[in-house]
Amino acid sequence: MLPKQEIVAMLLAGGQGSRLGVLTKNMAKPAVPYGGKYRIIDFPLSNCVNSGIDTVGVLTQYQPLELNEYIGSGQPWDLDSMNGAGVHVLPPFQGNQRSDWYKGTANAIFQNIPFIERYHPEYVIVLSGDHIYKMDYSKMLAYHKEKGADCTISVIEVPWEEAPRFGILNTNDGGAIYEFDEKPKQPKSNKASMGIYIFNWEKLKAYLTADGADPDSDNDFGKNILPAMLHAGERMYAYEFEGYWKDVGTIESLWESNMDLLNPKVQLDLSEERWKIYSRNPVMPPQYVAAGARVQNSLVAEGCSVYGEIDFSVLFAGVYVAPGAVVKDSILMPGSRVEEGAVVQYAIVAEDAVVQKGAVVGARPEDIENKNEWGVAVVGAGAVVLPGAVVPPRAMAEPGKDYEGEAR
């Protein structure tokens, strides 16, 4: 019999991430590289460890191979316990009462009720695998207990113009939730759900079971479980989070969040000793910056060889920037190459992609006549931008293919 756990974390990491375009064509969104040495999933996993939660189920589905290999035994996050705790990858499976894919966020948890029951928890925390933030879940659990809540939802205030993208909560002065709208066209508040929920397990299990038996349900927390609990009068509270939080589900938000790491005014400190973000890192030699190279206000990871000009950019491990190449306001993911005379600006160059001699990827906003046409350019994993080709703003070079584009 496995030891009883007070709380079990269930991390939803199966999303397709279609808004990330070519970056998620061959990998799940939580596996996308971030910040020079991390992947998105490192943040919720590290938050669990730092919060004292040592039993984590990771629910995978779309393109899971790279994510599964990355998580492995959980050793980088100290989640490789031999006593039943630790990290467990939970893909969909066929059984007596379960079949094929996870149909929604709630169905994903429903299908894994037997996993949760092994630990006899009092509470379950449900997390998303596609957000960048540092959060102490133990404080949220203490708030949940203090309020005597059945469900606690972590919320953050977002700009009013972004509120229709989120589940929006309305609360009274004591924090009790009296209204929940999933992506409303005309939101009544700007308190957005962060996709982090703590439930009393027995209560959640009852609602998941009822939802699983409803053929008309979308099997979704935001659309079904939370409204059902609210309608039934369950005790639901909002836990207000103050700190950096970013939903990196789009090309623009992923680029912005990486650029935030270079902004001293942004309150996301990855060097904080008390709350480390752990990751699985390659064993590579130190970075090399050649004489005559120019690097300023950038993150440059191990194994990089820089001979050109780098400004306000994030370089992952093993990146090569040739003499005469210019990289500004961009993200170069592991193993990518920018060859002689190439220019990369306001762009994301994915893993093992090559920008060949004299090619141009992206453009500065001030150089675009129609500002509505500007956006981040993307080169997919393993793609080759051929010599002299131009990848314009918003364009995406397909993974593993040659990109001819327009010659300069």
From TrEMBL:
Broad class of enzyme this protein falls into: transferase
Positions that bind alpha-D-glucose 1-phosphate: Y102, G167, E182, K183, S193
Annotated metabolic or biological route of this protein: Glycan biosynthesis; glycogen biosynthesis
Location of the Glucose-1-phosphate adenylyltransferase/Bifunctional protein GlmU-like C-terminal hexapeptide domain: 293-367
EC number: 2.7.7.27
Keywords per UniProt: ATP-binding, Carbohydrate metabolism, Glycogen biosynthesis, Glycogen metabolism, Nucleotide-binding, Nucleotidyltransferase, Transferase
Keyword match Cytoplasm: no
Domain Nucleotidyl transferase: 9-262
A GO BP annotation: glycogen biosynthetic process
GO molecular function terms attached to this record: ATP binding; glucose-1-phosphate adenylyltransferase activity
Catalytic activity annotation: alpha-D-glucose 1-phosphate + ATP + H(+) = ADP-alpha-D-glucose + diphosphate
One Pfam family hit: Hexapep_GlmU
Site (Could play a key role in the communication between the regulatory and the substrate sites): Q61, W101
Purpose of the protein: Involved in the biosynthesis of ADP-glucose, a building block required for the elongation reactions to produce glycogen. Catalyzes the reaction between ATP and alpha-D-glucose 1-phosphate (G1P) to produce pyrophosphate and ADP-Glc.
Family per similarity comment: Belongs to the bacterial/plant glucose-1-phosphate adenylyltransferase family.
PANTHER family associated with the record: GLUCOSE-1-PHOSPHATE ADENYLYLTRANSFERASE, GLUCOSE-1-PHOSPHATE ADENYLYLTRANSFERASE-RELATED
HAMAP family with a match to the protein in the record: GlgC
Assembly and binders: Homotetramer.
NCBIfam families to which the protein is assigned, alphabetical: glgC, PRK05293.1
Name of the protein: Glucose-1-phosphate adenylyltransferase
